[in-house]
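Service request form, structural biology core

Requester: graduate student, group of Dr. S.
Request type: structure prediction, single chain
Budget code: on file
Notes: please return the result as structure tokens.

Sequence provided:
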Amino acid sequence: MTSAIDLHGAPHVARYLETNGEDGYHWRNGTTVLVLFTTGRRSGEPRTNALIFRPWGDAYLVIASKGGADSPPAWFLNLSDDPEVEVQVKDRRIPVRARVATPEEKPEMWRTMVEAWPDYDDYQASTDREIPVVVLEPR
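Core staff response, request fulfilled:
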């Protein structure tokens, strides 16, 4: 069986949920992953995404990078329509409210996320879009 370290997208999410994060929480290069549950802004269908994260006090930080693409990831657009979502961290399902980090907060939060995944700096350099740090605060 393939480890979740080798998985992306839906297969990673499926393995994470099947194992309550036992396989999937720890990912590449020492990163940790949560699962974000949103609702499609057009379809109304449930959506899930495995995202690299770091804790920030009681909240969680994720980056809406889409690998440095000029458009944001669909999950970020879904959050913009409905910020009341859930995350799963290991076996804990947590209701959260999503918001974009303020300009004052972002530099320190960005540094924290780049420590987790250095490619974020390269992603930002490859696009004119300002890549947001998303703060997921328990509600």
